[in-house]
Design brief:
The longest helix is centred in the C-terminal third of the chain and has 24 residues. Helix 4 packs parallel to helix 10 and helix 5 packs across helix 9. The protein has two domains: about 120 residues, Aspartate Aminotransferase, domain 1, CATH 3.90.1150; about 220 residues, Aspartate Aminotransferase, domain 2, CATH 3.40.640.10. It is built from 13 helices and 13 strands. Bound molecules: 4'-deoxy-4'-aminopyridoxal-5'-phosphate. 4'-deoxy-4'-aminopyridoxal-5'-phosphate binds next to helix 5.
């Protein structure tokens, strides 16, 4: 092939999506496999969102509203910000892509935790940027080292709160001290994909900090607590000036018709959100208790997933569970080789997951570490 591919594109490790559930079932001869791997909402989409999307189907020959007027207005009301603070995306990763396109030049640096959501690294590299990973310390973001990693070439800093894959959160005073230490010319992407699940009182969303830190972009998504991962809609909240730059590089019809009406309806479905929070909180507590009884530790998490130290190679546990029809996430590539990550599901899914874990542990020897 004679196609010229820039070196910085060649250097990207492609994102490897999980196989569709149906394909796994076929491959392993399974029935009714359970997927607790991608931090999705086990209740499905909100019924109100489903209803609204169904009604919008007959409009699909039209382009979506390029300004996503109604969703922007609804979000502005919901968050207590002005509409010009909002940039909507085809998932929140689209908003990250816009920020990278708008603010990074070839060779510019983006500081990020490691391990972290893989798209930070991939998107920065698509712009010829340099990803600067800062390892976690005792599972928490090492905010001091992240500040030290910022230099004159740094344009972006990624912070995830609560973090994926650990589920740990940053308390308000630590977040503010961190933001104080970052130069105002460097944009901070504060990813709050799991904010709706947080119960801790000393957690504070970045949205109330936007006046103090105009270099802040807060990322949110409808993919998790709102149960709409499949229609792809997320957003960023930021100073209007920053939003203006992102809009310049935004694709004009980046939020599709179903996403716009579905997200509007989901925002109003307060009962569904409450139910989701309840199911996740109960499920987490249930897992914690049962895992402790099995002699395993579930790490505390403020999100809808948690890490379990399985005291043996997590990759093997993941693989053996897969054969029993339960898909969790191996943390091998994330620097936690003895852990798996479990997304909280419905009670029967959680039970099936625990039974599979219990069954496979005996077949895999514990390691000394
Ligand atoms: N940020 C984090 C921390 C995530 O875990 C995810 C999804 N796995 C996303 C962002 C992306 O969400 P979206 O579906 O809105 O693109």
């Amino acid at each position: 092939m004679q196609i010229c591919v820039p070196e910085f594109i060649r250097a990207i490790d492609p994102y490897v999506p999980g196989k569709p559930l149906e394909e796994l079932e076929r491959e392993y001869g399974l029935k009714q496999a359970v997927k607790l791997a991608s931090n999705e909402n086990p209740l499905g989409p909100s019924p109100k969102a489903l209803d609204a999307m169904q009604k919008a189907l007959f409009k699909l020959h039209r382009y979506p509203d390029g300004s996503a007027y109604y969703l922007t207005q609804a979000l502005a009301r919901h968050l207590g910000v002005t509409p010009d603070c909002l940039v909507l995306g085809n998932g929140s990763d689209d908003v990250i892509a816009m920020a990278v396109r708008a603010f990074m030049r070839m060779g510019d640096r983006a500081v990020m935790p490691h391990p972290a959501f893989l798209m930070y690294d991939i998107l920065v590299k698509t712009a010829g940027g340099v990803a600067v990973p800062v390892p976690l310390r005792n599972m928490d973001l090492d905010l001091d080292s992240m500040v030290s990693a910022v230099d004159g070439e740094t344009r972006l800093v990624f912070v995830t709160n609560p973090n994926n894959p650990t589920g740990r959160f940053i308390a308000e005073e630590k977040l503010c001290a961190f933001l104080d230490a970052i130069p105002s010319s460097v944009l901070v992407m504060l990813d709050e994909a799991y904010v709706e699940f947080v119960k801790k009182e000393n957690y504070h969303s970045g949205i109330s900090l936007l006046d103090r830190y105009p270099n802040l972009i807060v990322l949110r998504t409808f993919s998790k607590a709102y149960g709409l991962a499949g229609i792809r809609v997320g957003y960023g909240v930021m100073a209007p000036e920053v939003a203006g730059w992102l809009h310049r590089v935004r694709q004009p019809f980046n939020v599709n018709i179903l996403a716009q009406v579905g997200a509007c309806a989901a925002l109003e479905d307060v009962a569904f959100l409450e139910k989701t929070r309840e199911v996740v909180a109960e499920g987490k507590a249930w897992f914690q208790e049962r895992l402790a009884a099995m002699g395993l530790t579930a790490h505390p998490s403020e999100a809808n997933f948690f890490l379990v130290d399985v005291r043996r190679e997590g990759r093997k546990v993941f693989d053996a569970m897969l054969r029993k029809g339960v898909i969790v996430r191996s943390m091998h590539g994330y620097g936690f080789p003895r852990c798996i990550r479990i997304t909280v599901g419905l009670r029967e899914e959680n039970e099936k997951c625990l039974a599979a874990l219990d069954a496979v542990l005996g077949d895999i020897p514990e390691d000394e570490g």
